[in-house]
Design a protein that fits this description.
The complex is a heterodimer. Chain A is mainly α. Chain A has helices at about 1-30, 35-45, 50-75, 85-100, 105-135, 140-160, 195-210, 215-225, 225-230, 235-260, 275-285, 290-310, 315-330. Chain A has one domain (about 55-315): Orthogonal Bundle (ABC transporter involved in vitamin B12 uptake, BtuC), CATH 1.10.3470. In chain A, helix 1 (about 1-30) packs antiparallel against helix 13 (about 315-330) and helix 11 (about 275-285) packs across helix 12. Chain A starts with a helix and ends in a 12-residue tail after the last helix. Chain B folds into four domains: about 1-85 and about 170-255, P-loop containing nucleotide triphosphate hydrolases (Rossmann fold); about 95-170, no CATH class; about 270-350 and about 435-520, Rossmann fold (3-Layer(aba) Sandwich), CATH 3.40.50.300; about 360-435, no CATH class. Helix content of chain B is about 35%, strand content about 25%. Chain B has a six-stranded mixed β-sheet, with helices on both faces. A six-stranded mixed β-sheet of chain B has the order 16-19-20-13-21-22, sandwiched between helices. Chain B starts with 6 loop residues before the first strand and ends in a 6-residue tail after the last helix. The chains are: A mainly alpha, B alpha/beta. At the A-B interface, helix 1, helix 8 and helix 9 of A face helix 11, helix 12 and strand 18 of B.
């Protein structure tokens, strides 16, 4: 099965990416008045200047961090479907903390604290699903999804209730003081230094997976639980830990958005990000390094469609179909010609 | 004119990528119709790969296949089935959550009697169960149709597998190491059925490395070594000893002698008192009132037919099943057997070393490379302060591969290994540990060839000679008689015999205890 993964994984991903790009072009041809300029807006404009490029790269940051979390949970055969709620709650916790800290706080300390609080919030929600699985046998897919749905509603209430900015017409918290926001690179775009953290995290998780006992034991738990028990690996602990890490990275992604590009917590601002992170993890095919190109691709679909929407008036929802098509091809069990029999 | 052979395979080669190991290298096979044909060879000789090619599970890199004289290219198991070829695997491939009946008739489901339900494609499980009963009776198998196969014992699962092939009306039935999971009596029953099928004109291919079984049941035998065919012989015109020499590629072969006590028994290691547990399988019995002592340098063999408590005893001693009552005394430390974490600590600290009987489910992670599986049990040694010691892991794995003669490379995915080689890997891993005080070996030679079996027997002798206690759980009476100083027999979860192995014991006597005809 290792061989199968090696031969089949990349082919499948290339096919999925290729088909979705071809479909994107097809959709543009169908819906645009001027096919040539729509094509350019979709494929070239995101790279055409510092501003567009920076915004595009900024979009990859939460996808990389949260996608990494989903990947870690996948590896231990835990499926975290609660990313939407974990990210949102992490963002809200971080935002509230940033608004409460006195104006004289050292910005670096504030970034660390908000990132930590966001992470812990997401981790606590993820760990809850892990605990339910380990001790009550509740499917983590169901519980994480349902808990997330609850958390989203509670967060919505908090944002529009106790934390609502009284001066704003939007459903949002107050603005975080500018000195507390992460420094931008490629100004005036919204790209900030958190992209460095995302890449560093990917590197750290790569090393942990390949070189450490924790990574090894997590892998064994995912491959064969009965064997893991035979080896004396505490399977329940790893179940809980994997869900906590996954939730924690979602929470961190949310926190970084709030002290970065967003600067406040707007109701529903992160909607869809949780699912996109799952797409990233699926595209990455179980490899930490694969998270980077996967996030670049998923963010590209989003950015390109935004450009086409503004330039040619094609609704960006059409592009979300393409994302679905890409996922369909990656997760499809059997593909013509690529099918290989299991030994 | 000679009758057309049922199967003719010529020049079959198969290489596994990415490891590049040749599983088959120009192998040949001719099987007469209506015969029982054995395919023998050591672990990794390429027997299973050749059979998988015939069953459409693997595509050969080169070679020709003829079925009933017609050249074919068998592209899938479904295609093989249309040609009348079916295979029962050593590691069963079935739907654990479905019932026996659903597994047997999968893809052939009889539709509902009611017209509307039939139009909706709904399966009438009552008639499915009924047909399973009829089929099982026709061939004399005892299978509970509605039980989920997950809950069945290993021998019942095999019966389901065979019935599945018979339900699909296969003419050429391939059985891969069918007796490795069966007791003597069950083997006799199976062979009776196979002879019956031969009389009905079916062709049977039997992959095995048990020479006595070849001599007993097969008409012809093909010997394989290193992926190549060595030759095909009539069993009537070859002796067991000649066959053993052909398999091993050596000119002489000496089977180990009967049991002789070489070590003296020392201090008490483990005492088990009044052990009770619930049953694990559907139709199993659980354990009631089991008690035994085991001393340094002693080999205690515990024997039972399937569903008589051996599985439950293994799971309790593996720390997988918490008993409902009982007491353990390990080296003078007495504790309640229900406090399973105390027992598991002994396993974790390496004081007790345990070899599982179900090697695919419990002893390895198939998708991981050999080296990962080798180091998985002894992580304290192969990780220093949490970091992997790759060089040490590689070296130790390669050493084990050499010492145990495993046909594999350290980086090879374990799934590519033959069943026997996986077992050798599990054994090598166990014996490489710092010396445990108690070794619990469950069915240690299932699926092993003669040479490896002898190796294992010698190792068991060695660890017992240096003073470790060995608890041998086995359904193989010959093995129990060969290795044990003391023999215990379980019947319906209760001990019915506790005997000293001092020469007067034989298979028939143990068999009577096993069947519950005799008790002490």
């Amino acid at each position: 099965m290792e061989a199968e993964r090696e031969l089949r994984g990349p082919a499948r991903v290339v096919l999925a990416v290729g088909v979705s790009i071809a479909l994107a072009a097809g959709v543009l041809a169908l819906f645009s008045q001027d096919f040539g300029s729509a094509l350019a807006q979709f494929f070239l404009e995101p790279f055409s200047n510092r501003y567009f490029l920076g915004n595009y790269l900024a979009d990859t940051v939460p996808l990389m961090i949260a996608g990494l979390g989903v990947l870690i949970a996948f590896r231990s055969k835990n499926f975290n479907l609660g990313g939407e709620g974990q990210l949102y709650a992490g963002a809200l916790a971080a935002g509230v903390l940033a608004l409460r800290l006195p104006a004289g706080t050292d910005p670096f300390a504030l970034w660390c604290w908000t990132a930590l609080v966001g992470t812990l919030t997401g981790a606590a929600i993820g760990a809850l699903s892990g605990l339910l699985k380990a001790f009550r046998g509740v499917s983590e897919m169901i519980s994480s999804f349902l808990i997330s749905a609850t958390v989203i509603n509670i967060s919505d209430f908090l944002i529009t209730g106790p934390f609502q900015d009284p001066a704003s017409n939007f459903q949002t918290t107050r603005q975080i003081a500018p000195q507390f926001l992460l420094p931008r690179i490629l100004a005036p775009s919204k790209l900030d230094i958190s992209i460095g953290l995302a890449l560093a995290l990917i590197l750290v998780f790569m090393v942990v997976a390949k070189r450490t006992r924790i990574g090894f034991e997590l892998k064994i738990c995912g491959e064969n639980e009965e064997f893991a028990r035979y080896c004396g690996i505490p399977v329940a602990t790893y179940q809980i830990a994997a869900m906590a890490v996954s939730g924690g990275l979602y929470g961190l992604a949310g926190a970084l958005l709030v002290i970065g590009p967003q600067g406040r917590v707007i109701r529903g601002f992160s909607s869809g990000l949780g699912w996109s992170a799952i797409s990233v993890a699926l595209l990455a095919q179980g490899s930490e390094a694969g998270v980077v190109p996967a996030a670049l691709f998923i963010a590209f679909l989003g950015t390109g469609s935004d450009h086409v929407m503004i330039g040619s008036g094609i609704p960006s929802e059409i592009i979300s179909i393409l994302q679905a098509v890409a996922m369909f091809f990656i997760t499809a069990r059997s593909l013509p010609r690529l099918r290989r029999r299991r030994p | 004119m000679l009758p057309m052979p049922a199967v003719r395979m010529r020049g079959i080669s198969k290489r596994y990528l990415p490891s590049g190991i040749h599983a088959n290298d120009g192998a040949e096979l001719v099987v007469e119709r209506g015969s029982i044909h054995a395919v023998v060879g050591e672990n990794g000789a390429g027997k299973t790969t050749l059979m998988k090619i015939l069953a459409g599970l693997e595509l050969p890199d080169s070679g020709d296949i003829e079925i009933d004289g017609k050249p074919v290219r068998i592209s899938s198991p479904a295609h093989a089935r249309r040609l009348g070829i079916g295979m029962v695997h050593q590691h069963f491939l079935m739907f654990d959550e479905l019932s026996a009946a659903e597994n047997i008739f999968f893809g052939l489901e009889p539709k509902s009697r009611s017209h509307i339900l039939r139009m909706l494609g709904i399966i009438d499980s009552a008639s499915l169960n009924e047909q399973t009963k009829v089929l099982a009776q026709a061939y004399g198998f005892a299978v509970e149709p509605s039980a989920p196969v997950r809950s069945l014992s290993i021998s019942s699962r095999q019966q389901v597998e065979i019935l599945r092939q018979l339900a699909a009306k296969v003419r050429i039935l391939i059985l891969d190491e069918p007796t490795s999971v069966l007791t003597k009596q069950e083997t006799e029953t199976l062979f009776g059925k196979l002879a019956e099928l031969r009389r009905m004109g079916r062709t049977i291919l039997l992959v095995t490395h048990k020479i006595d079984e070849v001599m007993q049941i097969a008409d012809r035998v093909t010997v394989m070594r290193g992926g190549k065919t060595i030759g095909t012989y009539n069993t009537a015109s070859i002796s067991a000893n000649e066959l053993a020499c052909l398999i091993m590629g050596s000119s002489s072969y000496e089977e180990g002698g009967p049991h002789t006590k070489t070590s003296t028994t020392g201090a008490l290691v483990l005492s088990v008192q009044d052990l009770c547990s619930r049953h694990r399988h559907h139709g199993g019995t659980g354990l009631s009132g089991l008690a035994f002592d085991i001393h340094e340098g002693e080999v205690l063999g515990i024997c039972a037919l399937s569903s008589n408590g051996l599985d439950e005893l293994e799971d309790v001693l593996a720390g997988f099943l918490t008993p409902s009552a009982g007491t353990f005394v390990f080296r003078g430390h007495r504790f309640d057997a229900r406090r399973s974490h105390e027992y598991r600590r002994l396993l974790k600290e390496g004081k007790i070393a345990y070899l599982p009987s179900d090697r695919v489910r419990r002893a390895v992670a198939l998708s991981l490379p050999v080296v990962d599986n080798f180091i998985a049990l002894d992580r304290r040694m192969y990780f220093s302060r949490g970091w992997i010691r790759s060089a040490l892991a590689q070296r130790a794995t390669q050493e084990a591969i050499r010492a145990f003669d495993i046909s594999a490379r350290a980086e090879q995915p374990t799934v590519e290994l033959s069943g026997g080689n996986i077992q050798k890997l599990a054994l090598a891993r166990l014996f490489s540990k710092e010396r445990a005080e108690l070794f619990i070996l469950c069915e240690p030679t299932w699926g092993l060839d003669i040479r490896s079996t002898e190796q294992v027997y010698n190792r068991v002798q060695n660890i017992s000679d240096v003073g470790s206690a060995v608890l041998l759980l086995s359904s193989d009476v010959d093995e129990i008689l060969r290795l044990s100083d003391r023999i215990m027999v379980l019947y319906r979860g209760k001990p019915v015999a506790d005997l000293t192995n001092s020469g007067y014991l034989n298979r028939t006597l143990i068999g009577e205890y096993l069947l519950g005809i005799r008790s002490t």
